[in-house]
Amino acid sequence: MHIEEVAVTMLLLSWVIFVVVFLTRKTYNFMVRRKVEHNVAVYYNRKIIHILAGGLCALIIPAAFESFILPLTMSMFLSIFLLICHRGKRLMYWFQTEDNSYEVSFCIMWGLIISLGWILSGGDFRIGVLPVIFMSIGDAITGIVRNVIYKRRTKSWWGNLAMALFSVTAGTAMGFAGMLAGAAASIVEHFEFKLIDDNVLIPLTSFIILLLARHMAPWSLSL
């Protein structure tokens, strides 16, 4: 662990806090002033956080870190912070909702998948980062498309198609296996299960595909 990694961690954590606590409160107020319904504004904000916090930070990880320890620590700290807001009934109303705590599972899976990818691949961050990109940016795209069309949280194959266009393209960074993982992530997002939300299903499904490809068909990790 180097001092540079500590500095980057503090910068990323500060950025995430800025996005979550300040920026999205401003975007919420902006949308409400323009007669956007509360639940629609909240849903847009959740996707903004997906991209600007989860996605951007994930893209920086391979270039800035040599170990998973600090990224995992940051994600666990954020998940505990968000869980305390839920348990204490002090929700950040501009993006949190009483009926689910999916943002907590998002933070946990962000750190867990990146860490497992590094550990099980012998230090290759890409195995974990790409599934997190599908969860952060790909899922945000499908949510934004659905919100524009339906003005509420719902499932739609139009959103999944938009997610697939992004995720399969992004997956080319890891060859045919990455494209397959992106396609699979875009499909499983469409389905809802009582005991598991898509912030778990998307990265876990695509991570398993990439991990199997690395060990059983390494040729598939390049085009």
Briefly, what is this?
Helix content is 76%, strand content 0%.
Keywords:
223 residues; 8 helices; mainly alpha; single chain
Describe this structure in words.
With 223 residues, this protein is mostly helical. It has one domain (3-221). It is built from eight helices and no strands. The protein has helices spanning 3-33, 38-64, 69-87, 102-120, 126-150, 157-171, 175-188, 198-216. The radius of gyration is 17 Å and the shape is globular. The two termini are 34 Å apart. The model has no long low-confidence stretch (mean pLDDT 94).
What is the SS-derived class? Answer: mainly alpha
Helix content: over 70%
- Percent of residues in beta strands? under 5%
Low-confidence stretches: none
Beginning-to-end CA distance, first to last residue: 34 Å
For the record, the count of structural domains works out to: 1
**Sheet of most strands:** none
Series of H and E elements: HHHHHHHH
Distinct helical segment count: 8
Q: What is the β-strand count?
A: 0
**Overall mean confidence score, pLDDT:** 94
Gross geometry: globular
Radius of gyration: 17 Å
Task: Outline the secondary-structure elements.
Elements: H1 3-33, H2 38-64, H3 69-87, H4 102-120, H5 126-150, H6 157-171, H7 175-188, H8 198-216
Helix pairs in contact: 1-2, 2-5, 3-4, 4-5, 4-8, 5-6, 5-7, 5-8, 6-7, 7-8
